[in-house]
Each structure stands twice: as structure tokens, then as C-alpha cells.
Amino acid sequence: MPIKNNRLTAEEYEQNFSDLHPPFDSRESALVEANRCLFCYDAPCTKSCPTEINIPKFIKQISTDNVKGSAHTIFVSNIMGAGCSRVCPVEKLCEGSCVYNLMEETPISIARLQRYATEQALQKKWKLFERKPATGKKVAIVGAGPAGLSCAHVLSREGVDVTIYEKESKGGGLMTYGIAAYKVTPQFCEEEVKYITSVGGINIKYNQELGKHISLAELQQSYDAVFLGFGVGLARQLNIPGEELEGVVDAIRFIYDIRADAFHTVPVGDKVVVIGMGMTAIDAATQAKRLGAKEVTLVYRRTQSEMPCTEAELDIAKLDGCSIIWLAAPAMIKGAHGKATQLVCNTMQLGEPDASGRRSPVESGETFTLDVDMIIKAAGQIPFVELVNNNQLKHAHGKVVTQMNGSTNIPGVFAGGDCVNGGKEVVDAVQDGKLGARAILEYLNV
Fold it and tell me: Which of 40, 164, 185, 236 would disulfide-bridge 141, Cβ 3.0–4.6 Å?
């Protein structure tokens, strides 16, 4: 049961990682769907969008063939609207709130309509925003992910010069490095970053990491304000015997390698177990299967009712042939010759609710064993505690503490996105970037 790469043909890789939700195949198809919309007053879909996109308006604009106006309506609220149309869990946001659900009818395909308008904007390079004259103010942003890019775009439109410091060699953050390749490609992410920065006044300095190449103190001295959007990214460890064995990998690293390298270069096992049931766990499991793993099993310590991922995401894993074992928690990893060969799990049962409101899993006293050659840990991510401590930022267990407007305990320093909320959706980070930019503009009296 070896862990190896290059398991499939080029054609199989292309098929396995093709677009999960293809766009409308014609203008006519988009118009038919747009004309289904009831254009609700006080629309619940808009209320459920973290960035408050005026959804009935942009759909109405599509229905009247004003696609450029539709894209502008989307981008005013969410400059990463093109990417979000591919990766947002719309079933629990806008589409989940569509009134058609109350009629037991299929909700409007809001995401596909959003993609229809925004991708044309990117492809045709529509210039939908004019930058105001330069104000002479300068702002530094740490992190070229959704929060940082959103903040930068709002600031730049108002004439503020922005410099983004990004530790990776490409922008996009989670969109580029942390999401399944069949949802959004690195090439698309690169196009989206270029489109966002094309407004002007935004300079991205790559391979620049806070705490390593630059310091917060230096940024404070050189800029009028600072926005921190460095996210999270440290994998939560299992802290069980055998975790150090060969074949035990972090889901974050596994997905990163798939995003950064060619599919055929990423090794995967025959019998893979993924620990966790969040979006990252689903992405890791489905991609392991699509890389050529023969068996993929998801292990989760609670039941389906408590899982962090959506039903739609779980269905993707099931359709890909992944198995799920509920009420099971890893207890020990056994190995031979330094390589993982078995995962011993405790059978769990649900007890009283924990601080999050979910019922806490407790051991039943029974165990079972799974044969494995690869274990992917997707038990969550933890904040950069050392980084925030070293910069004297007020925090709660590593999550930067901010006011409603994104301001931190340090005057002139703002923060948003995953480094504040601990890891939510891309669209939440975009909204944090917007709010942070507005607070910075007020702080700078722009």
C-alpha cells in the first residue's frame, strides 16, 4: 500500500479536477434563470449575504442585458464576487434564504448568475471603478488574501496608496492555496488578483512575512495606518502516539501542495483516512480520491447533526466514493518501519453541550482499528499566537481582538478576516476588509 504520485493519466487528472459547478453555457440560459427571480422587496437573500450584495438588483440587470451594470453592483459590495461565486456555501447563505425554498421549489441559482456577470468583467477587463486623486496617505496591509485585497481596493478607490506585504509568492490567500482545485483554479485566482489591483495604487510585495522580513513597528513608522489580514494557518495537532510517523500529513499542507504543484507530483496513499469534518477535511478527502486513492474514509468524533461542513459539501465526498465513520476519535497511530499502518479510534458518544453549543463527544470505552497508509489531519486550524503576542496585540487565544470597525488595541492598526474570526468563509473576510478600510478612511480623515 504505497504512497506515491503520478497515479493517473493526464486525461484522468483533468477530468477529476474539472469545474465542479460549470457556468451557464449561453446567454439565453442565464436570462431564463434571471427571469425566474421574484425581485423580492427587503430580499432575504441580500440579508443573508455577509457582504450585503444587492442580489435582486444585479439579477434584474442581467435580465435586462445590463451585464456590466450587474458586475458593478456585485463588485461594489464584494470585489471578490467572482471567486465567491465559485466557493461560497450558498446553500446556507443567499440561496438557502431564497423564498422559493418556502414554496418547495428550486432556489434561484444566485451563485451561477453572479459568476455569469463577474467572469465577463474579468475576461473583458471592464474598468468599473475610477480611482480618486491621490490623497498623499499611505497604508500598509499584511496579507494579500480576501480581507487584505478587499481592504486595499476600497482604500485605493479613495486615493490612498496601498502596499500589501504577502508571505507567499502569489496573492489570493486561502483562495489560491487553501481551497479544492475543482472549485477554483490557481490561474483564476491570479486573474482575480490582477483585476482587483488594476484599479491602481496597490503594490504587492511578495515573499514578505510579518515577524520575519518586516515588523509591525517598521510598518507603523513608514505608513499612516496598518491593516492586518494574515489569517490563520497552523494545523491543529492530534497529540496522540504515532503522529510523527511517515504518512501522517496536515490537510493544509496537502491542499497547499495540490494548489501549488502539478496534480501528478502530489503523492497519495491507497487507503487514506481524513480526520475531521470541516470544509478543509472534505476538500482533502475528495482531492485524495481524485488523485487516485483507492479508499478514503472520513472520521469524525461527533454525528452528522454537529458537523461543521454543509450537507452539499458532504454530498460531494459521498459522490466521490468517500466513506464516513461518525462518533469516532483518533486514539493512536500504529506503524511499521517508521510508516503509519493502522489508526486506532475510540468509539464516542455525545454528552453535554460544550461552549460552542454542540454536544461534547465522550469515550464509550470501545475502540476499533483501520488499516491505513496515509492519514490526513484536518482537525482545524489555530491562530498565530506567537505572532500576535510578539506584536503586543490584544487577543483571545490567538485571535486578534478588534472593535466593531476593526480597530485593535494599537492606535492606527486595524485587523480583519481569519486572524480575527478564527476561520470563517471567504465572503466574511471580504466584508471585514471593507469595514476595516472604511474605519481607516475615517481614521485618516479621507
Answer: 164
